């Protein structure tokens, strides 16, 4: 028994010895394994010193930056590099220069405020980013940050930054998505965003044209957001138009007006389709449409096109050619009152005829339905014989021309004969 107890004590003692301890073996960390501390001071001093030596010679600046990339850590200190090139030193939050660090007087903000100088600076940035592609993303982030700091800069500094940004956008060095920063509530509220946008778009259009602006804005979904450069109480087409036209940017004003009109039309079309789907009375739809037409300053020709598209989009069409014509006639008969309310002018009737021609051509199942649709709308007093004859003679478009003219031939002959008979009856009466 004593032996057994000794054995148990010995076993417990062994267990105690095997218990893991927290004092592990220490390994000496090698120098290269330690993470380098972020310290831009030395980097800043090297860049500032180089810029002070090159001075205002931007060719020399570009060469210095090109060569320095091999020795200095651009990837790690990209923000510091761009801060110095733009403002002369590192920027503190809000846009003020950090007091305790070295600065240079040779930077964008101290340069001459003219387009030629800004174009030269754009070349410096362009060469730098082409040489060191990894700086591309950091540069965009820098521009976004600088735009948020606009209130911290002088008017002259803002103007230079605006001109530079416009040139960079025109040349595709940065994406138009950076303009998101201009929608900052405080910048918009104090009118900083709109004033900055004037200079920016002027230099952009000067470098390229309004089509370049339109294309870039559409690409990032900003073509319908220009009104947001103004506070909510001034966010109207009239105010935008006056502000930018007075500033010499009528092209931009026209573009924004057109975009707003397109947006309003899409919204109106969507609303009309919803009303039709709900089965709202046509009188109510007509009243609503007339009100919207007035509000959006749309012509009757534009309105009839929207109505036609809405009417034809609110139904699931049969895929069989022989059945779709019957379905279309029944459907259009139901909405003839609505169509009639917006064809009070000859031009509106022609617009509708052209819209029907294009629709029947673009939707292959409707190719044989064209004549029957026109005849139905003639009988419903939506289309007049004058409009149909005008369309037949010289107002049609090329789409499916031969097919549709052939379809309409007999009906047009009947219209002409009816017109002649009517004229001869009038002569006999006289």
Order of helices and strands: HHHHHHHHHHHHHHHHHHHH
Specify the overall morphology: elongated
Unreliable stretches (pLDDT < 50, length at least 5) are 1-16, 24-35
Strand content: under 5%
Specify the number of helices: 20
Taking Cα atoms only, what radius of gyration do you get, to the nearest Å? 36 Å
Instruction: Average the pLDDT over all residues and give the rounded result.
Output: 88
Oligomer: single chain
Provide the helix percentage.
55-70%
Largest sheet: none
Pfam family, one: HEAT_5MP1_2
InterPro entries: ARM-type_fold (IPR016024), eIF5-mimic_regulator (IPR051245), HEAT_5MP1_2 (IPR057397), W2_5MP1/2 (IPR043510), W2_domain (IPR003307)
Protein name: Basic leucine zipper and W2 domains 1a
Keywords: Activator, Transcription, Transcription regulation, Translation regulation
Write up this protein.
Belongs to the BZW family. The chain contains 20 helices and no strands. The chain has 430 residues and is an all-alpha fold. It starts with a helix and ends with a helix. The model is unreliable at 1-16 and 24-35 (pLDDT under 50).
Task: From the structure above, extract its key features.
disordered N terminus, elongated, mainly alpha, Basic leucine zipper and W2 domains 1a, 0% strand, W2_domain, translation regulation
Q: What's a concise summary of this model?
A:
This protein is mostly helical. The chain has helices spanning 2-18, 41-54, 58-68, 78-87, 115-131, 135-148, 155-170, 185-189, 192-207, 210-219, 237-246, 250-278, 282-295, 300-313, 321-334, 336-341, 346-362, 370-379, 385-395, 401-429. The N and C termini lie far apart (148 Å).
């Amino acid at each position: 028994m004593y032996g057994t107890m000794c054995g148990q004590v010995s076993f417990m003692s062994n267990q105690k010895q095997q218990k893991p301890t927290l004092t592990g073996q220490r390994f000496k960390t090698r120098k290269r394994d330690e993470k380098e501390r972020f310290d831009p001071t030395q980097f800043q001093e090297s860049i500032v010193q180089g810029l002070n030596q090159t001075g205002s010679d931007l060719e020399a600046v570009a060469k210095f930056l090109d060569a320095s990339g091999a020795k200095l850590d651009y990837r790690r200190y990209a923000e510091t590099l761009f801060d110095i090139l733009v403002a002369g030193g590192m920027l503190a939050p809000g846009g003020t220069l950090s007091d305790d660090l070295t600065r240079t007087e040779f930077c964008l903000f101290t340069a001459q405020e003219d387009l030629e100088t800004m174009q030269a600076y754009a070349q410096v940035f362009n060469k730098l980013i082409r040489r060191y592609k990894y700086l591309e993303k950091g540069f965009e982030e820098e521009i976004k940050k600088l735009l948020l700091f606009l209130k911290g800069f002088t008017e002259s500094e803002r103007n230079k930054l605006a001109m530079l940004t416009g040139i960079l956008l025109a040349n595709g060095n940065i994406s138009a998505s950076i303009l998101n920063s201009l929608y900052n509530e405080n910048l918009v509220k104090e009118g900083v965003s709109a004033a900055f946008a004037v200079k920016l778009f002027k230099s952009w259009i000067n470098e390229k044209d309004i089509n370049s602006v339109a294309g870039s804005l559409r690409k990032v979904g900003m073509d319908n957001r220009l009104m947001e450069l103004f506070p909510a109480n001034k966010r109207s087409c009239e105010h935008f138009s006056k502000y930018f036209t007075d500033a010499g940017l009528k092209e931009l004003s026209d573009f924004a007006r057109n975009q707003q009109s397109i947006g309003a039309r899409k919204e109106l079309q969507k609303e009309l389709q919803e009303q039709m789907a709900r089965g709202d009375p046509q009188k109510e739809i007509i009243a609503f449409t007339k009100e919207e037409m007035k509000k959006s300053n749309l012509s009757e020709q534009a309105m009839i096109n929207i109505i036609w598209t809405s009417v034809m989009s609110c139904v699931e069409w049969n895929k069989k050619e022989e059945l779709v014509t019957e379905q279309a006639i029944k459907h259009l008969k139901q909405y003839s009152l609505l169509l009639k309310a917006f064809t009070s002018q000859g031009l509106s009737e022609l617009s509708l005829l052209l819209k029907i021609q294009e629709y029947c051509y673009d939707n292959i199942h409707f190719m044989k339905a064209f004549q029957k649709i026109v005849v139905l709308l003639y009988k419903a007093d939506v289309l007049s014989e004058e409009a149909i004859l005008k369309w037949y003679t010289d107002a049609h478009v090329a789409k499916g021309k031969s097919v549709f003219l052939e379809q309409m031939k007999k009906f047009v002959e009947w219209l002409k004969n009816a017109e002649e008979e009517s004229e001869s009856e009038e002569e006999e009466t006289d």
